[in-house]
Design brief:
binds zinc ion; 25 helices; alpha+beta; three-stranded mixed beta sheet; about 650 residues
Length: about 650
């Protein structure tokens, strides 16, 4: 493949790589911390497989065995279908689609699989074999209002025959705090015998499977010595090592609580850990690791195992700090009316990190941001940590074919600017948007919040306003003066080209022909671009060019375009400050919603040659420690796996800590 970031595509999936920026800026001790945390994360990989479906591990082991030793025809269509199925199973951590939750359909027959199993002496029989081909357990998570959601979901959070009513009744009892009604294992929910604080509700059911034994409902807790204990002991082992190289006391204390939680399964310890983790904000390394998000549970109790290890984005943090220190300068020099300027503006803190490793529910398919903890009372009392995963987003953005950029740029100069300065322009726009944009401006006395005044248009107006503030300052020598860029004009031009190209053309590839623009950010990018295009028409600021039946937008006058952005910034702030619903509605509806059908059809047609799968996922870089004769780590190198299948087989082999049935 031409692009390092894109490994391969199959079915509706693409497999990407990401780079660990900042690795060499870490001390060896910090690198060790990252290494131990990623090992802890990977140690729990099989937990997620078993959570997703009770036969997943059995099926995976059998398929992988066949895949590695089958000596027959490996070129036939059947074999290719088998290989495709296995890759899809790997991607989903099981036999259900990671996004739609529907069971994956193999394109080979049961006879073919039977034959493969026989020829490789692999055993896969009974329900675990049949379920690959039949209609049973068709949905991992069934949220249909006509279904018994617990009973009819294949996800392995509940034992056989447990119903939605069972689950509700079970937790109602626990929450009632009535010692006579509470189940026998309710001590797990209590802190050292203390009664439960109603203002600090525990996350009941988060770390257990609920099963029926002899008609009695019972939790099987995920902990050392409990369910998934074999993998959890490995997680603990690596977390202990991580704790030994923690960057500071709060971080180390939090790791200690996480270890206690894995040892005891106590939900009080889980909350204590979350408080400590949220308060541990110093340091260059952070992580999430545990049973966290509950959306794989149809009734929202049980957490899926996941881990993400994060390194501070040093470069971005520096840029944000510079912007934040100069927030007042940007406010004073913006185009806002004086009455709408803040006298004491404070930059908003916004954090990006670079991912160093992921596992469980966060891999191969990953979130692009993390905002935790989930417990509302902790968020209120202690706060939360919110980060965006910079290198993951960068990979998504840059894994596309370079042919697509060529197709939509007006000329070689635009292409060259984008190649050389586009990425920095994007980063700075994000920084300006988040740190300065959302912090800027004030609402007039007596005018309500925008959700009251601007209603459904509030968020697109706000996002457009923040974009505009960023755009206004992106083409400005001030950025060079602050040391943020080396060539302010080139970066500014690349940023303006990219914004207009996307806002008027390329973002439309995400939309079906005939549909209106609905998504908040797509809307604001369109109304900002379309309004500016129209305002500059008389002076030919942005020229619409048709060449060989293809449309291009060429910016002729960057300083004038900056002025136009400045005017629109002033107007959007006026709308926000005054709560001018009519003006806001007109701006969004006239410029942001409707799509020029001819251009849209043309864009889709021009884009057809660049096939890109709708869902992306990642292989992880491999951290390879080098050791001296005493087994002391002397260095840790970052390698990249050659292929998706290599990594998946390696993971199953090295981190396969669970039995097939749990
Ligand atoms: Zn925003």
């Amino acid at each position: 493949m031409e692009n390092f970031l894109l490994i391969e595509q199959f079915a509706d999936l693409k497999i990407l790589r990401y780079r660990i920026h900042g690795w060499d800026d870490l001390t060896l001790k910090e690198q060790k911390l990252v290494y131990y945390l990623t090992q802890a994360g990977l140690s729990g990989r099989d937990i997620m497989w078993n959570m997703n479906y009770r036969h997943n591990l059995k099926i995976r082991n059998a398929l992988e065995n066949v895949y590695q030793i089958y000596k027959g025809d490996r070129t036939s269509e059947d074999w290719k279908s088998f290989q495709l199925y296995l890759k899809r199973v790997w991607f989903s951590n099981g036999i259900h689609h990671h996004y739609s939750n529907a069971k994956l359909k193999p394109e080979f027959t049961s006879e073919y699989l039977k034959n493969l199993l026989e020829e490789t002496n692999t055993i896969l029989e009974g329900e675990a074999f049949d379920v690959i081909f039949n209609e049973k357990d068709a949905k991992k998570v069934n949220k249909s209002k006509d279904a018994d959601n617990v009973l009819e979901s294949a996800v392995n959070f509940y034992g056989p025959n447990v119903t939605t009513a069972d689950v509700e009744a079970f937790y109602l009892k626990i929450k009632s705090q009535d010692p006579d009604l509470a189940p026998t294992n309710a001590d797990v929910f209590k802190a050292d015998g203390k009664s439960i604080d109603p203002d600090k509700p525990l996350s009941y059911g988060l770390n257990s499977m609920l099963v029926k034994e002899n008609g009695e409902l019972k939790e099987r807790v995920y902990k050392s010595g409990g369910l998934y204990g074999e993998a959890i002991d490995e997680i603990i082992k690596w977390l202990e090592l991580a704790k030994g190289v923690a960057e500071n006391k709060p971080q180390g204390d939090a790791l200690g609580l996480l270890i206690d939680y894995y040892k005891t399964g106590s939900l009080q310890t889980w909350d204590d850990y979350n408080v400590a983790w949220t308060e541990a904000t110093e340091g260059n390394i952070d992580y999430i690791n545990s049973f966290i998000e509950v959306y794989n549970d149809p009734v929202g109790y049980r957490g899926s195992y996941e881990t993400i290890v994060q390194i501070k984005d040093f470069d971005m943090s520096k840029k944000m700090a510079v912007l934040s220190e100069n927030a007042q300068w940007f406010e004073d020099n913006s185009t806002l009316m004086d009455a709408h300027k803040k006298k004491n503006v404070v930059g908003i803190s916004y954090k990006t990190v670079n991912v160093a490793g992921e596992a469980g529910d966060a891999s191969p398919s990953t979130p692009i941001g993390v905002n935790l903890p989930n417990a509302n009372w902790i968020r209120k009392a202690v706060g939360s940590k919110s980060v965006s995963l910079g290198n993951i987003i960068e990979s998504y953005n840059n894994s596309g074919s370079s042919g697509r950029l060529k197709e939509f740029v007006h000329d070689d100069e635009e292409h060259k600017l984008e190649k050389e300065h586009g990425q920095l322009g994007d980063k700075l726009h994000t920084a300006l948007h988040e740190v300065i944009g959302h912090a800027s401006g004030q609402i007039n006395p007596g005018v309500g919040e925008t959700k009251e005044t601007l209603k459904t248009y509030a968020s697109t107006l706000e996002e457009g306003r923040a974009d505009l503030l960023g755009l206004y300052f992106l083409y400005s020598p001030k950025l060079q003066e602050l040391g943020l860029v080396e060539d302010w004009e080139a970066v500014g031009k690349a940023a303006y080209d990219g914004y207009i190209r996307n806002g008027l053309m390329t973002q439309l590839i995400r939309l079906e022909l005939g549909d209106d623009v609905e998504q908040t950010h797509m809307r604001n990018r369109q109304w900002v671009s379309a309004w500016s295009f129209e305002q500059g028409k008389a002076d030919n600021v942005i020229e619409k060019v048709t060449r060989d039946g293809k449309t291009y937008y060429n910016i002729n006058d960057y300083p004038k375009l900056r002025e136009i952005f400045g005017r629109l910034l002033r107007e959007t702030q006026r709308i926000k400050s005054e709560g001018d619903f009519e003006a806001c509605q007109a701006l969004v509806e006239d410029y942001g919603v409707k799509v020029d059908q001819a251009i849209h059809a043309e864009i889709l047609e021009r884009n057809e040659q660049f096939t890109s799968a709708p869902y992306g996922g990642f292989v992880n870089p491999v951290l390879v420690p080098e050791m001296d004769d005493n087994g002391e780590i002397t260095a840790i190198k970052v390698m990249h796996p050659a292929s998706f299948e290599n990594q998946m087989l390696w993971y199953s082999n090295v981190y396969g800590f669970l039995p097939e049935e749990n």
